[in-house]
Amino acid sequence: MLTRPYDSDRHPEGTSLDFIFPQEFETSLEAARATVGARFEVRRFFWRERNEIVFTPPCSYFELTRFPSMGRYLASARDFCEQGEVRFYPAACPFQMHWQEREQRSLFCRIDIPAITGLPMELSNQQLRDTIDMRNPHVRALLLRAQQELVAPGLCSQLILDSISVGLAAEMVQQFGPESQPEFTSRRTFDQRYLAGLVAHIREQPGRVEIGQLAAERGISVRHYERLFRTATGESPAAFCRRHMLALAKDLLMDRSLLVKEIAYRCGFANTASFSVAFRQIEGCSPRQFRDRLLIH
């Protein structure tokens, strides 16, 4: 069995893709895969004498399970409610749960939504309560497909799981993000849902985002689109797209089975040289040097 201590100070949000579990139970890892801004794991748990726990997740994650339990967020100070098949635990939100059964099997998806979408995730008390039983059919379908790819991987499992992690992040922003940024009220401005969809598009088809097409979709000129975009985000559309293309590249560099030239192509660059120049401008080192540093740390 694999057992690891739970330490909420060791891994603040965004610094690790690893799960950390309490010492009150034993857990065995059945399958795992790191993806774009996320990590998926299938685990089996064997509880000891404990049937209740209060914990503070060091990272945000989904759980897909049929394990019956009751739970509540301490911040909301409400009564316990039944946890659903799909659950989402936001980072740094103390949670209390209790159960009766001694064995559990779950799919976990540790996900960094701000890193994937470029947007913050701040949940109200009511929204926190909704995460205890996530009744979002799209999220459930994505997690079920992820579980299938983990248990029985295929030729394109990595690409599918990359897409699933982006889809999960976009669904969360779609469901829980504010309708629009308060300082902009026009239907043509760039709310969080629009930006989340654009980030998903950039990650799924990097290098194929055309500003002219984006402006046409909004029914405005390219110049007006760029002005509104810069006002809403603080950067140009081109810089926004380049930043998220390179964020995708950094995630892919963690997979040492991928060649740098493959990553350059997947991120929309015509060749390795142009990819290296752009990467060095942002990170101060080449893609290969960045990958080597990951090994050192």
From TrEMBL:
UniProtKB keywords: DNA-binding, Transcription, Transcription regulation
Domain HTH araC/xylS-type: 192-293
InterPro entries linked to this entry: AraC_XylS_family_regulators, Homeodomain-like_sf, HTH_AraC, Tscrpt_reg_AraC-type_HTH
Protein's UniProt keywords contain Transcription regulation: yes
UniProt protein name: Helix-turn-helix transcriptional regulator
Species for this entry: Sphingobium soli
